[in-house]
Amino acid sequence: MDPEFVLLELAIRKRELDEISSLIGKNIGLSKESTGKEYLNLAYSHDYKENEDGDTVIVYSHHNGNIEEYLSNHCQYALEAHRLVQEKQEAKKRLGVAKARVDKLSNLLYNAFIENQKQQGDLIA
Predict the structure, then answer these.
(1) Above 80 in pLDDT, residue 124?
(2) Among 21, 39, 70, 95, which is most exposed with the fewest C-beta within 10 angstroms?
(3) How far apart are CA 79 and CA 31, in angstroms?
């Protein structure tokens, strides 16, 4: 495991997430500016109801459950923000993997340090 690669990957993943978050904010702002409405919030607005089988289901307030179709009919900026929200979820997973690699690397380094201290008789119990 190359320490430089592990740390570089973490930095890249953090910046990726920051960039996506920024783009989401910009598109939401452009959506509200161009339409006067917050279509992304409208698209996500829902309630939970019980169906005839007794299961709890999501019922969207402004459409039949097809968020992309609703947004494509109302605002391209909100549609892009929605796409970016989906991308952000994947980016968070990639960041989690990068963080796990840093943890693994730090544990390997720590264990090597402890082993070295034991061999030198310098380990403080």
Answers:
(1) no
(2) 21
(3) 9
